[in-house]
Amino acid sequence: MSARDTDWDGVRLHVVTGKGGTGKTTVSAALALALAAGGRKVLLVEVEGRQGIAQLFDCPPLPYEERKVAVAPGGGDVYALAIDTEEALLEYLEMFYNLRRAGKALTRFGVIDFVTTIAPGLRDVILTGKTGEAVRRKRKDGSPVYDAVVMDAPPTGRITRFLNVNTEVSGLARVGPIRNHADTVMKVIRSPETAVHFVTLLEEMPVQETLDGIAHLTEAGLPVGGVFVNMARPPALPKSYLAAAGKGKLDLDEITVGVKAAGLENHAAEIARALAAEAADHAQRAELQAREKKRLSRVKQPRYELPLLADGMDLAGLYDLAEALNDQGVA
């Protein structure tokens, strides 16, 4: 298919992070659908073992294998992989040490859990390495198996350490297969083919974690992608009414007249007061969003907004979010 003019031309690994509760997995899934639109093949990878991808795509829990979970608009395919740390470590032992049978024996004694606990850097090498392998994988004709790979990564507070695997394994191995594997992973992560995206809400804590995360990645020399503002809520009132509502100066008599005109004669004054209070809460929320949006405008990264879905998140909503991303030039 022909190339598309997008914000992320040339990027093949999209790492998605964000503070817990911001909808990181949802945005990862929507991004995968958006990237696959028009006939492309995309792999969506989960590394935290929560089976969030299966829930979003309304399918059974994912095994440790790449499975097709959705057809994107225009005929593209989205595959998904839930990385199982134990299976990935066994695969790693077989690949580099020819020790898969021994590795299976080790699991019975909990040695794998012990190793990944005392050497968490090794766990991250395994998880990022499996994702990096999918990025590098080629068909017989030399073309990539996947046009793009999206990783639903750990939260913002851990993302720099998670991705900077060379630093994490420096105390484990300075030479040998582990070190070589880490070096290979870092070549992918530090390349122009990778972008680390941040998901946030227009709230103080998520925005602050996003700003801090961007600063930490930049300091570590890791590639920063875009900022995805999730569950954005447009103001439901004109600016003049928002200002009055925020100051508690809405005309209760006018609201009461409107309530009666709507056929709610009984308790009209009480309903009017409740509506004024709700309007005041909405005005405060709108003011908060505007303030946090202004803070985000200080960063140079592209910013995208995804709406709060009135009917909640389901598969149809996921496609709506993917369309919103495509409309904003993500893919």
Explain what you see.
By secondary structure, this protein is an alpha/beta fold. It has 2 domains: 13-233 and 308-327, 3-Layer(aba) Sandwich (Rossmann fold); 239-282, no CATH class. Helices cover 51% and strands 15% of the residues. It contains 14 helices and 8 strands. An 8-stranded mixed beta sheet has the order 3-4-2-5-1-6-7-8, with helices on both faces. Strand 3 (67-71) and strand 4 form a beta hairpin. The two termini are 14 Å apart. The model has no long low-confidence stretch (mean pLDDT 86).
Q: What characterizes the major β-sheet? A: 8 strands, mixed
Number of strands: 8
Assign an overall shape.
Answer: elongated
Radius of gyration: 24 Å
With helices defined by DSSP (H or I, 4 residues minimum), what is the helix count? Answer: 14
Low-pLDDT segments, ≥5 res? none
Task: List the topology elements.
Elements: E1 13-18, H1 24-36, E2 41-46, H2 52-56, E3 67-71, E4 77-82, H3 85-97, H4 100-108, H5 111-118, H6 120-136, E5 148-152, H7 156-163, H8 165-169, H9 177-189, E6 194-200, H10 204-220, E7 224-232, H11 239-246, H12 252-261, H13 268-296, E8 303-307, H14 315-327
Parallel strand pairs: 1-5, 1-6, 2-4, 2-5, 6-7, 7-8
Antiparallel strand pairs: 3-4
Please summarize what this structure is:
The protein is of the alpha/beta class. It has helices at 24-36, 52-56, 85-97, 100-108, 111-118, 120-136, 156-163, 165-169, 177-189, 204-220, 239-246, 252-261, 268-296, 315-327, and strands at residues 13-18, 41-46, 67-71, 77-82, 148-152, 194-200, 224-232, 303-307.
